[in-house]
Design brief:
There is one protein chain. This protein has 482 residues and is an alpha/beta fold. The chain has a single domain, classed as Amidase signature (AS) enzymes, CATH 3.90.1300.10. It has an eleven-stranded mixed β-sheet, with helices on both faces. The longest helix has 24 residues. Bound molecules: glutamine. The site of glutamine has 14 residues, from loops. Glutamine binds next to loops.
């Protein structure tokens, strides 16, 4: 049998049954893998061997009938796990242990999943490369000199490196899908409101959504089944029934209408990315889907709108970190001085940049010109999608304009960094679901990702198309050489 850490959740579930595998055996396999590769990958923000062993022993005393029973899951460091470090990879939350579990964590615990640790991320999820983490960057398992993407770079790299079987991330402007694409795994941002945000430390409350990062599409469906659903603790979660997403794992997608937006197939798109996405389109044509040329005319404004709305919400959400209740405190005789010193020391440069940008665009005198205007353009972007979905069931695009770039390559130029999310941001602005899945490798052997977007609450069609493509793709899957 292959080592448990190298399997998908559905494969491991079979092994658990046929080989009578204990959670303790699975924990040992994870620890072994951690010891082999973590020094290179640096995917964890917090990993405690003893806690993992204890947790596995507890699970072995139970008997759960869930597809996630004993399955290792890593949790992004901005999602609260009771009594365990949850720091958003920021100094300002150093030592913070939440007094409660996020709803997704409660659901995973109820399902008997084996929580392996907290995954590294860009500080407060601000970034596309994992380089703004106070713990230092995670590395791309396919090339350790390159970034894993961000902000859920730790989650994506851990799945790719087989240091976990499943991972949970959060996506505000692409933070699940872009790292999934760059690390060769599957990542889904569900519809806004599909998964509870209770216990997710907020970045942009009107954009944030929690979702799965997995080794294949089947695992995405399994994990989505567990974490989805209405939650009275999150007033933006929506009370509509959760279908069984595994029923959408079918190869028959004949007649599905897929839109190709001309604004996403632009000059400047990396040649290898274009070539891989074109080849995926050919594969899908073989499955008798119908391709339709469409236009999303306001795409050009998406990045600007996102940085105004996202930073405005972030500046307001981050006001609570002032040294009084959580994490770091820089003592001083005066309260105001304590605030200042704590925030000056605790936040990194990117967090400060966003707080300043957001505070500016919300300030009286600028509010109308920036925040309000951005909200209006956001409506136009949403309208673009409504129009497009009159003609098609799904939209296909590349996930990221380039494969993984080198560590340090974009840190000096925030604008270049922000442009990494040009194809993922619109789905957050419109609140619609989107998935990224691998579609092959660049000439340098770096993973390339393909994105499907769907109407709100149509995760089923995303899974159908992703699964059908995954099962028919003709390129050979390669594990990273670590
Ligand atoms: N990279 C984008 C940003 O820096 C998206 C981040 C995210 O989705 N959390 O804002």
């Amino acid at each position: 049998m292959q080592e448990p850490h190298g399997l998908t959740a559905h494969q491991l579930q079979k092994e658990i049954k046929t080989e009578n595998l204990k959670a303790s055996d699975i924990a040992s396999s994870i620890i072994k893998r951690y010891e082999q590769v973590e020094d290179k990958v640096k995917g964890f923000a917090h990993f405690e061997k003893d806690t993992l062993i204890e947790r596995a022993k507890d699970l072995d005393k139970k008997n759960k009938k869930s597809p996630l029973y004993k399955i290792p899951v890593a949790i992004k460091d901005n999602i609260c796990v009771k009594d365990e470090l949850t720091t958003c990879s920021s100094d300002i939350l150093s030592g913070f242990k939440p007094p409660y579990d996020a709803t997704v964590v409660t659901k995973l615990k109820q399902a008997g999943a084996l929580l392996v640790g907290k995954s590294n991320m860009d500080e407060f999820a601000f970034g596309s490369s994992c380089e703004t983490s106070c713990y230092g960057p995670t590395k791309n398992p396919y090339d350790l000199e390159r970034i894993p993407g961000g902000s859920s770079g730790g989650s994506a790299a851990l799945v790719a490196a087989d240091e976990t079987v499943l991972a949970i991330g959060s996506d505000t402007g692409g933070s699940i899908r872009q790292p999934a694409a760059l690390c060769g795994v599957v990542g889904m941002k569900p519809t806004y409101g599909r998964v509870s945000r209770y216990g997710l430390i907020a970045f942009g409350s009107s954009l944030d959504q929690i979702g799965p990062l997995t080794k294949d599409v089947t695992d995405t469906a399994i994990l989505l089944n567990i974490i989805s659903g209405h939650d009275p603790m999150d007033s933006t979660s929506v009370d509509i029934p959760v279908p069984d997403y595994t029923k959408s794992l079918t190869k028959d997608i004949k007649g599905l209408r897929i839109g190709l937006p001309k604004e996403y197939f632009i000059e400047g798109l990396d040649k290898d990315v274009k070539e891989r996405v074109d080849s995926a389109i050919e594969t899908l044509k073989g499955l008798e889907v119908k391709f339709i040329d469409i236009s999303l005319p306001h795409t050009d404004y998406a990045v600007s709108v996102y940085y105004i709305v996202g930073c405005s919400e972030a500046s307001s959400n981050l006001a609570r970190f002032d040294g009084v209740q959580y994490g770091l405190r820089e003592e001083s005789k005066s309260l105001v001085d304590m605030y200042k010193r704590t925030r000056a020391k605790g936040f990194g440069n990117e967090a400060k940049r966003r707080i300043i940008l957001g505070t500016y665009s919300l300030s009286s005198g600028y509010y109308d010109a920036y925040y309000l205007k951005a909200q209006r353009v956001r409506s136009l972007i949403r309208e673009d999608f409504n129009e497009a979905f009159k003609k098609c069931d799904l939209i296909l695009t590349p996930t990221s304009p380039t494969p993984a770039f080198k560590l340090g390559e974009k840190t000096k130029d925030p604008l270049q960094m922000y442009l990494s999310d040009i194809f993922t941001i619109p789905a957050n602005l419109a609140g619609i679901p989107a998935v990224s899945l691998p579609c092959g490798y660049s000439k340098k052997g770096l993973p390339v990702g393909l994105q499907f977007m769907a109407k709100a609450f149509d995760e089923e069609n995303l899974i159908r198309a992703a699964y059908a493509y995954e099962q028919s793709a003709d390129w050979k899957r390669l594990k990273p050489k670590l």
